[in-house]
Specification:
Helix content: 40-55%
Largest sheet: 8 strands, mixed
Radius of gyration: 34 Å
Strand order of the largest sheet: 5-4-3-8-9-15-16-12
Number of strands: 37
Bound molecules: zinc ion
Distance between the termini: 49 Å
Number of helices: 39
Length: about 1200
């Protein structure tokens, strides 16, 4: 059956019924939603009601062969919407019935899609004889289902059997039903198109408690849509032939495309699979092979009866693959195989090694043996998703199994490990214990994702994955989760198209929630509780809060208390600086008061890397949602100038993407870009020539190079162009001419800044030639980097060319890349989609919503104007119906744009004001780090040789280089050779001297400190001197600040960073004293934290308080004069906010020592300042701040 979709009130609509045999005229009957029966006269076109009166509203027609009848409804009314029934009568055949819903745009989908529970399957025997040959991609199928009858509600008085079968894919030949051994008469057979139901109407009622046996013979299709039982192909270079692979993808609702079944996850049964094969083919299924048999003259493989499982986990594969057999360990009796086309076998080793280690790892972790006797991992040539956890037969997109050292980057390798472990983890989570319905998919995916981290971290400890999990997995999740269209994790699944679910959100958020659970339960209890947990224990939604003093061990992530209300008060602990959500174990973000942020910023460099990453990530997100001032965030970011840790850098890069996107089209973009460049440059020059093969170094370099090129750092682009040229000139094995870890940025920026069309065509040509899948995907990605709109159009057109060489499974990468790599890509893609709508729709057919999703999703990324919103909105309204499940994506994208618009309205001006101020303050006397051209003059060899010498001083010496480079830049730009370097060092002294003079007026401390070191000697000697004298420096500092004695304890910790500069300075130059003063400032500030009202800090305070408020407030004078007041009245307000909607107002307040209802004056002034920035005159702002209620109202409304 089929119908006009969607129907529109007032317009015409048609409903078709089809059959495989001729219909007698006047024997096609339709029943309208209001139960009116209509007889269709196919010869005259008249439609009559029961009283034989002709109805003018309808028209009947048929095709020439009379294998179809149709009713045309003129001017659809509301009453026409709903379920229609179509009945076809043919002599000698049972009547054929169909149900279909006429739906309008509002209804969109049929919502009640669940099977009744009065017939429950116990076991299946499935015999499939597929023909995988051109012109006959079909399957002869027979399914025998043993079921039992239960006393459960149904809509047919127990006189029907309802199961799933997709009419378009399965043509039923004959059916038999027996109850308790006796044959039942089937009165009619019906299809419900919207629910994919096959309904057998029976003469007799079913009796609860009795057994039921069904036998259905059918002819199936082996299509190439990547779901159900489908075909894909690869080219066998040895035989010079294209080979076909038959394989399955049944999750979520596609088993019904392969055979009639009860296709819901909780309707578990055992399966015996019998598979026919031809020629050189082999077959694989979930279970080990039992024997070979002959059925109807064809050789078949008979598989053992499976364990009890869900239909979506069933799989069969028919192919000519070979396997890498890995049963080498007598104590590892499991048969473990990895399968692929023969020439790819050597590339399976990495996946095999990881997989083989993962199984005992999980067995041990859960104290539960893997229940099957074998496990196969199979590389499928065309695969819709990343991989699929079919029980005992895991299928993978080829690139997630193939690893070749020469062509795969470290991150590719990691990705493979992760995907392999994820699917293996599902053998327990998902397969053994399964969610009852798809609404709890997050549980499956969350566990799979989290367990993959745990396993890979254990198998490949060098990846330090658990450190990064909270940043990798939060990437866009908080954002995705915060937009209006976000669904709760356990969302009701309303329509039969489960692709519309938010799989990403399920995976990542689920993963983080499970990690949070493990942390608060402790790993032991967590493991212990896993099995109980799956038995359906639900948990209360409360937030586990952890907090530590920053002087404590911050890697301790013990939960301190549970936040069950919207606010809680903590007992004060000596006014220490508290740090919340240790290890980012909880699924929430933390906002501190301005003052606490200041102190966090001061102490930044002393904090562990995960904490630093967390702060950067939180600050960028909080200022994005207007919960934190950008001035504060930029001050925090300033610390990145000396950052070298991968986790922190990647959190920063990711967090800054939002701003990059928002500002990319802005006239002031360069100001912003210049600032970000200054943060990255140091680490860039440090890693660009790194040859280290240590995992952390490799991934860091790869991240920094990509980042630097995206920031247009000239040196990076020059390198990309140079290496791109070499790659182009390489004829043979050109796949090897660029390191796999560099391909992404080299190809992309090589093309972007290259000779446009010629280079583009050249790359395209190579995508055709290369047999290397990694090279190919790097090239696909690069092709989207062009700035030329006409080339983008060309690329998009190629993607829907019927002869396109881009594989079906890879098209989504093309669309994602265009959206991601090109400023105008997403807009152009939407126009292209709109302009070529019919053609694209036709080209993708059933896979249209899936691909459309990738075309539309990137649109929100840099959309922050009303115009951009309207454009998509118009597109949406125009094409709503045909977008199908992608409509949901469009709604999400529209929501994201709304959030962007809001951001722009509220934060844009503030951002630039704050940014300009921070930049001005940091660059005063400090051109050193901001001028890339001068830095380009650095002698490449210099850095590494210094580094070697300095040993542990790695982080300091490069700064020395920068110093020297500035010297070069100042006197003679771009000198080469080590000699110049030395000169530079000298010159550097001068420069740093200048800096020192200015450091009193608010220079950045950490930099000053390090510059101080640079002023001194180089090499390891310096370090020794440095660390030796550190103590002295500290001592001096303490003396200098007079009453600072209490601070000495805290100060000792300080000495690691802050005082290095001061120490050296003290010994070597008078300016150094100023630095030691700076050092004092730091320890002094900390003293404030641990002891109230440090009067002694008075004289030094000027410096530090100027520093502190710097960009956050204009009232420097006020600040200084009231400082005493601040220290006296100091209260620390710490705010813990969560992203959970019902808990957004959560606030944890720490009262410092005494109970104080008075506002912290610094915060008070910031509020006034905030109000002034939002247009309130000073006097009024002051009045508002005094009026709690009024202030609250304004603050509440700001979002
Ligand atoms: Zn999964």
């Amino acid at each position: 059956m089929d119908r006009t979709y969607p129907a529109e009130i007032g317009k015409n609509a048609t409903i078709w019924c089809k059959t495989s045999y001729p219909i007698f005229s006047r024997s096609c009957v339709m029943v309208a939603p209001g139960n009116e029966t209509l007889n269709l006269d196919l010869r005259t076109g008249k439609v009559r009601d029961i009283s034989s009166a002709t109805s003018e509203r309808y028209e009947a027609y048929s095709n020439k062969q009379f294998q179809m009848c149709a009713i045309k409804i003129h001017s659809v009314k509301v009453n026409d919407l709903g379920q229609w029934e179509c009945k076809i009568l043919s002599l000698g055949y049972p009547p054929r019935v169909g149900f279909i819903n006429l739906l309008d745009n509002e209804m969109r989908y049929v919502k009640d899609v669940r099977l009744p529970r009065h017939v429950l399957p116990d076991s299946y025997i499935i015999t499939l004889v597929p023909y995988l040959m051109e012109g006959n991609y079909t399957v002869d199928g027979l399914v025998e289902i043993n079921a039992h009858i239960a006393d459960a509600p149904n809509s047919c008085d127990n006189k029907c059997i309802i199961l799933h079968s997709k009419e378009a894919a399965i043509d039923i030949r004959h059916m038999h039903v027996q109850m308790g051994g006796f044959k039942l008469v089937i009165n009619s057979v019906a299809y419900d198109k919207d629910r994919s139901f096959l309904i057998l109407y029976l003469e007799e009622a079913l009796v609860p408690g009795k057994d039921l046996r069904k036998e259905i013979a059918f002819l199936g299709k082996v299509q190439d849509e990547m779901t159900g039982f489908y075909r894909s192909s690869y080219f066998d270079f040895a035989l010079n032939q294209t080979k076909v692979v038959g394989s399955t993808q049944f999750q979520s609702i596609h088993a019904r495309e392969a055979f009639p079944c009860f296709d819901e996850p909780d309707m578990k049964a055992t399966f015996k699979v019998i598979l026919g094969r031809q020629g050189n083919m082999i077959t694989l299924s979930n279970m080990p092979k039992e024997k070979i048999d002959i059925v109807l003259g064809t050789e078949v493989d008979v598989y053992e009866t499976s364990v009890k499982m869900s239909t979506y986990l069933l799989s069969f594969i028919i192919c000519e693959f070979k396997s890498l057999y890995l049963q080498t360990d007598p104590f590892f009796p499991l048969r473990f195989n990895v399968w692929a086309q023969e020439d790819k076998l050597p590339q399976l080793k990495h996946a095999a090694n990881i997989g083989k280690k993962a199984i005992p790892f999980f067995e041990d972790m859960f104290d539960l043996k893997y229940p099957l006797a074998k496990i196969d991992l199979v590389a499928i040539p065309d695969f819709k998703y990343g991989a699929m956890e079919n029980w005992g037969i895991l299928s993978y997109r080829d690139k997630f199994l193939f690893y070749d050292k020469t062509d795969s980057s470290e991150l590719n390798k990691l990705e493979i490990s992760m995907v392999v472990c994820h699917e293996i983890a599902h053998q327990w989570f998902g397969n053994l214990v399964t969610m009852r319905w798809w609404n709890d998919l997050w549980l499956n995916e969350g566990f799979g994702t989290y367990m993959a981290y745990v396993a890979v971290n254990s198998i490949s400890p060098e990846t330090k994955l658990l450190e990064q999990i909270a940043f990798i997995e939060t990437k866009d999740i908080f954002v995705l989760d915060a937009v209006k269209s976000a669904k709760p994790l356990s969302a009701e699944v309303k329509n039969p198209e489960f692709e519309g679910m938010q799989p990403q959100l399920a995976m990542y958020k689920g993963c983080l929630l499970i990690r949070m659970m493990e942390n608060f339960l402790t790993p032991e209890v967590f493991r212990q509780g896993l099995r109980n947990y799956f038995k359906g224990d639900s948990f209360l939604w409360v937030i586990p809060i952890s907090y530590k003093s920053i002087l404590e061990n911050l890697s301790d992530t013990t939960v301190n208390f549970w936040l069950t209300e919207s606010a809680a008060t903590l007992p004060a602990r000596n006014k220490e600086l508290l740090f919340f959500n240790a290890g980012r174990m909880g699924y929430y973000r933390v906002s501190y008061s301005i003052e606490l942020w200041d102190r966090v910023i001061e102490n930044f460099s002393k904090l562990p890397n995960v904490v630093r990453a967390q702060l950067v990530d939180d600050a960028l997100f909080l200022s994005r949602t207007n919960s934190m001032f950008y001035s504060q965030t930029f001050k925090l970011l300033n610390n990145l100038r000396t950052e070298t840790d991968y986790v922190v850098l990647s959190a920063a890069e990711n967090g800054l993407k939002f701003l990059m996107n928002m500002l990319v089209d802005d006239r002031r973009y360069d100001t912003f870009l210049d600032f970000i460049k200054t943060l990255v440059e140091k680490v860039y020059y440090e890693v660009r020539d790194s040859t280290s093969v240590r995992y952390q170094d490799v991934v860091k370099r790869s991240l920094v190079m990509k980042w630097a090129c995206s920031l247009n750092i000239n040196d990076c682009i020059a390198r990309a162009e140079y290496m791109f040229k070499i790659w182009k000139q390489t004829e043979k094995n050109y796949e090897l001419s660029v390191s796999p870890d560099d391909k992404e940025w080299v190809y992309c920026y090589g093309l972007k800044f290259g000779r446009s069309e010629r280079d583009w065509d050249f790359i395209w040509k190579r995508t055709q030639e290369t047999k290397n899948i990694r090279e190919k995907s790097a090239l696909y990605e690069a092709l989207a980097c062009t700035d030329s709109i006409s080339l983008l159009d060309k690329y998009l057109d190629i993607s829907i060319d019927p002869n396109s060489t881009i594989r079906k499974q890879d098209k989504r990468y093309v669309y994602s890349a265009i959206g991601k790599n090109n400023v105008n890509g997403a807009v152009r893609m939407l126009d292209w989609l709109d302009e070529n709508w019919e053609q694209i729709l036709k080209y993708y057919e059933g896979n249209f919503p899936y691909n459309a999703k990738f075309m539309i999703e990137p649109y929100s990324e840099n959309a922050c104007t009303q115009e951009r919103f309207d454009k998509l909105n118009q597109f949406y309204n125009k094409n709503k119906a045909e977008l199908g499940t992608s409509g949901q994506i469009v709604e999400e994208v529209l929501d994201k744009i709304k959030a962007n618009l809001r951001w722009r309205k509220i934060s844009y001006e503030d951002l630039f004001r704050d940014l300009e101020r921070v930049v001005k303050e940091t660059t005063a006397g400090n051109e050193v780090t901001t001028n890339s051209n001068e830095i380009d003059g650095i002698v490449v060899e210099e850095g590494p040789s210094d580094n070697e010498g300095s040993g542990t001083g790695n982080t300091e010496t490069p700064t020395g280089n920068e110093e020297s480079a500035t010297g070069n830049g100042g006197s003679a730009t771009g000198n080469d050779g080590s000699e110049t370097g030395n000169e530079g060092l000298e010159a550097g002294n001068e420069v740093s001297g200048t800096d020192n003079e200015e450091s009193g007026s608010g220079d950045d401390e950490s930099e000053t400190g390090i510059e101080g070191l640079a002023t001194g000697n180089d090499g390891s000697e310096t370090d020794n001197v440095g660390s030796e004298t550190n103590n002295e420096g500290l001592a001096t500092g303490n003396e200098g600040s007079g009453t600072d004695s209490e601070g000495s304890e805290t100060g000792n910790e300080e000495s690691e960073t802050g005082n290095e500069g001061s120490a050296t300075g003290n010994e070597e130059s008078p300016t150094g004293n100023e630095r030691s003063a700076t050092g004092n400032d730091r320890s002094e500030t900390d003293n404030q934290g641990s002891s109230t009202g440090n009067e002694g800090s008075g004289s030094n305070n000027d410096g530090s308080s100027t520093d502190n408020q710097g960009s956050s407030t204009d009232y420097e004078e006020q600040e200084v004069t009231t400082d005493k007041e601040v220290t006296e009245e100091e209260t620390s307000d710490t705010e813990v906010t969560t992203d959970k909607e019902d808990l957004t107002d959560t606030e944890v307040t720490t009262n410092g020592g005494r109970k104080s209802g008075r506002r912290n004056s610094r915060r008070w002034r910031s509020m006034i300042h905030y109000l002034m920035r939002n247009g309130y005159p000073y006097q009024e702002a002051k009045a508002i701040v005094r009026d709690e209620n009024r202030l609250k109202k304004i603050l509440d409304n700001r979002f």
